[in-house]
Amino acid sequence: MAVTIYHNPNCGTSRNVLAMIRQSGEVPVVIEYLKNPPSRERLLALIAAMGISARALLREKGTPYHELGLDDPKWTDDELVDLMLAQPILINRPIVETPKGARLCRPSERVLDILPNPDIGPFIKEDGEVVIDQEGRRGKFAKSLRD
Prior knowledge:
The chain is α+β, with helices and mostly antiparallel strands. It has one domain (4-120): Glutaredoxin (3-Layer(aba) Sandwich). The chain contains 3 helices and 6 strands, in the order E-H-E-H-H-E-E-E-E. It has helices at residues 12-23, 40-50, 77-86; strands at residues 4-7, 29-32, 95-98, 101-104, 123-124, 130-132. The strands form 2 sheets. The protein has a 4-stranded mixed sheet. A two-stranded antiparallel sheet has the order 5-6.
């Protein structure tokens, strides 16, 4: 099984995840889901593989979420999936699928938990946040690489 990322190239988090995947040595299948949305069956399979509800996959920021009233609990998972398929911008990203599982990678460093090779070496996000420092420390334990 290849590593697959459902990607939006205009999203910094998605770009960071793609960079971490590539830095791990993987050559991922990149699906620009806004241009090529998943089928209903594929989206349902991803939701199940991630162990989340359809509601948990909804993106609010920069979408018609509030205009459509999607914060109302009246919406069923089937209805939410229909809306995500009709308007893929409502699908939160990036979603990554690897042999170790599927995950919504927000924050971007969540991808490290499912990469076949999570030892990617030092990594700094586009915004300058250090994910992994030169000593291999992750997250809040990482030192700035500029120090």
